[in-house]
Amino acid sequence: MIAPPTVIAHAEAAQTQASPVETAPEIHQESPPHETGTGDWVINLASYASETIAARKLADFERKGVTAEQSVASVNGKTIYRVRIAGFDTRKAATVRANSVRQQLGLKETWITRQ
Question: What one-character-per-residue DSSP string does 47-77 give?
Answer without folding.
Answer: EES-HHHHHHHHHHHHHTT---EEEEEEETT
